[in-house]
Specification:
47% of the residues lie in helices and 12% in strands. By secondary structure, the protein is α+β, with helices and mostly antiparallel strands. The radius of gyration is 37 Å and the shape is elongated.
Length: 693
Amino acid sequence: MNAPATARRWLPWPGMRNLPRETRDTLFLLGVIAWVIAPHTGQLPLWCSLLAGVVLLARARLALTGAALPGGWVLAGLLLVAVGATWLSHRTLLGKEAGVTLVVVLITLKTLELRARRDAFVIFFLGFFLVLTHFLYSQSLLVALGMLVAVWGLLTALVLAHMPVGQPTLAAAGGIAARMTAFGAPVMAALFLLFPRVGPLWGLPQDATAGRTGLSNSMALGDVAELALDDRIAMRLRFDGPPPAPSTLYFRGPVLSRFDGREWRPSPGGFRASPPADEAPRVEGPGFAYELTLEPSSLPVLPLLEMTAEAPAVEELPLWRGRDLTWRALRPPMERVRLRARAHPRFSHGPLQPVHELQEHLDLPPGFNPRTLAWAAQMRREPRFATADADTLADALLSHVRSQPYRYTLSPGIYGDERGRHAIDEFWLDRREGFCEHYAAAFVVVMRALGVPARVVTGYQGAEFNPVDGYWLVRQSHAHAWAEYWQPGRGWVRADPTAAVAPDRIEHVRALSPPPGMLTRTLGFDPSLLQRLRHTFDAIDNGWNQWVLNYSRGQQLELLKGLGFRSRGWEHLGLLLAGLTGGTALLGVAWALWDRHRQDPWLRALGHMQRALQGAGLEVRGPLTPRRLAEQALARWGTAAQPAAAALFALEALRYAPDGPGSAAAGRRAATLVREFRRALQQVRAPALPSRS
């Protein structure tokens, strides 16, 4: 598939239509390959992306200039170097990452020996396989649309490879590829709806730790502030009735009780699933029902609404509630989890009387934050706080935050000395600038210093309503940290110091956001327009997630119910799938039988002319070309046959027309030539003219 060897130097770009066909087809195929590889650049090693780009550009230059392709030794050397680099990058030649790298190397190097249709078919096969590998990394709507374009491009190149004669346009080949895709779409949809679901199709075992949620099983100052800059969606939810107040939307994640002076971690005791009877949660009121779709997570903790009292039903993912009220699974969810549950905003939990387990919620590491501990001791010595209970002390700390010049900010800087010590001292007594984790951590440290058990709770707070589809969106930027303290007779009580310093963050879910970007400031984009566009895309993406990626076995059985099956089971699903498959096969056979009687309009015109010559008395044996028929007619009838010969020569030229002999315009032209040929033969008196041999 090389360009003619006459063009040996760079020329001004003539346009795709004016290029030789082989050059044009080669450039189109290279562009499709680049489109297929481009989304992989984020996962490929840098050397592989550079190699692919350089090879594709070099191959395009060879196609334009008509230069010779490199020899086999050059390709073998490049392949050996690429295999070695793959080993050095991944320390293996097996697995997902190494496999994708090698496929990219193979498809790009194969373009350097693209000489025949056989080589092109190998590239088509590798291209279709590479399209599938994209879904190992992402199954988003944008990736699916991009790969749909890639499949259309590969099919167009495949159609061109099966049209070796003439100069068919890219538009004509692309139209055939689009029709092929449209004919296959019903079969694809039927297989998607009815083929038995066997779990996550693209999930791999190593993907379990590659979740997208930003929550962690530990917390250091600054961690949650980093999540506030992440605008990805963590979960979506929808309420059965009127939505609750934003201030009640607390999604409970890991509960952190152990503090080493720098980092907070959970207590192993919180994982226990059978708390004593007096610690069981106590709810008030009927609560509200909700449906939640959680994005893939790297933690086995599911951040459900407080307080979700009963275990929600999740297919193949058993859940249990720990002593600290967190819902856990046996493994991190590798795919989206959709569940229905009921939350009770008014609740209490925990022991009503002192127990031994509360001691770890009083522990503070020695040698850390001495000034804060001294400040708490001085507060305890004041007469009004000497015998105060936990509620009074908590109210006093929240009032202190409101009355002092504390500031809620995403960028408070780094706290603590060079070893990360005394960060609470610096925040609470000096700079007084921080995000939610600063306020929650400082509140817990001061409460413990005052002799009150306390702990940090992480999760999400608030949600953003999408008016397009009616879902509430919880983004990573809604990540939040708050505190709980223990009060005798009440149990654990929530205290959110962020509500004291930034009430809009809790009451109206007005999270902090980074300053507008340069593009927004320079071009003057309307923020409300961007918000509407984002909501529209989120709604479309949610529909893709709900109806395609999350299409489950339960929905398959519900489909059977909608089709009228009284008994819904896998055997009925198999029968329906077999029936549709058999019916499609029969339709294909009928189409093939009917298509056998169809003929290329050019060949049909040639057959009409050949039979007309035989009827005029010219003996024609075997299939002949138009030129050969014209030569025989001239030899038999001389100059009288020149009009008929002209029609045959015109038919020969039509075979190599730019639009191809199978186009509608070529068919009409061929029919016109047949009529002209028959009129020309009527002027020939076959018996009167001697044969010229």
